[in-house]
Amino acid sequence: MKRNGIVLKLGLVIMALFLSILIPFAFLIDRIFLNVYSIYLNDNVKSIAQSLEVEWVERDQSPEEIYQHLDLFFEHEVLFLNSNGHITHGNIMEFNEGSHLPMDWVSRLQNGETIEGERFNADSQENFYYFVEPIFDNGAFEGGVMIFSSIDELHNKMHNVRDWMIWAIVATILIAIGYTFFIVWYLSRPLVKMEKATREIAKGNLNTHVEVNSRDELGSLGSAINDLSVELNNYRKTRSEFLANISHELRTPTSYLSGYAKLIKEGKYETPQELGRYASIIDGEASRLAKLIQELFDLSKMEEGEYALQVQEVDIEDFVQTLQAKVNLKATEKGLVVNVEFDGNDKAVLTDGMKLEQILLNLLENAINYTEQGSVGLYVRMKEQNIEFIIEDTGAGIPENDQSLIFDRFYRLDKSRSRATGGTGLGLAIAAELAKQISGTIQMESEEHKGTRFIVTLPYSIEKTDAYS
User: pTM for this one?
Assistant: First the structure.
């Protein structure tokens, strides 16, 4: 067991809780028992004193007669006082026949007060409880009765009770210690396993798995650690693939740049037209390389949440017309028609217009690039709760096996065609990240040889706090 381990800490906390309950409870029981016995003793002695008062006053017996009668069978020590506070009958401790009570006691008795307390008899080594009852006859103070009752039995019983309480507390503590540390060990065992698992994950053993046996918070934590392990494993694989793709994507244009620059440098061309063609290839590859670097930079900033939103009101009808104008030229060059339909209402749209335009332009340009004949469509549906932008084409479509990969970085269905059109394989990945930033989603539907449809769904209004980060 670790000195600062969770088992020891939780055990000590629970034991402190046990003790904070047991000790006050034992003290309370002790006080209750003592009070109950004291009340019983007080009432018993007081009842005796009142009985002696009746014998003295109502039955007109003298203290001497009463004292002689009591001495035969009475277990308590009884003393009789006269009206002056002198003891007339009885002897115990410093209270002897002929001695005088303290004046303050006499005054209190004359005022009708009773006197009670405890005294220790050094001779017999006994503890006594005493009670003094004043005697009045027709309103005149006649004296009093002083009764001494041994309370050693009470003390012995109290000591026995306290001993039993101490033993009960000790036994309870021992049981509680065993039970506590078993429960704490049982509860903390999953945490210890999770701690070991996280350390293994931190060392790079990403196949580490935590066994989850419950559905409570500990089970949820174990599932979270397993999910973290899976995500980190996926991240490692994705990172490796990403670096491999980056290396490949950078190697190709740099090879072109280096090769054709070397041809020009060495004068290995025959006509000015050939030189211009080499220069055009270098320019194209440099533009492609610059586009790749910019897209990587944009994707990195988006994933780090460093893209600030510029939320503004967007006129959707004008926005759609601007999009159509931007893609018309490229579509016309390929002999394609861009169809636009706007099913709108008067609801205001608050979003980041620049990011929305980048998403839709990316999807429209992809549709044009992969469509050889037919048309490309942009359809806007302003529904009650959200807006849908639907981009359709009549291209070759996407095989079913590839449909789950289209939003992955550097994924290209037709690599030769992508290179011819300057594609980097990052366009759809960027579009998906941008959609998350403006609280939107992108769905894809495609059928091979019939075409592809992308559906971009957005809320009517977003706030900066709602943005993806």
Answer: 0.46
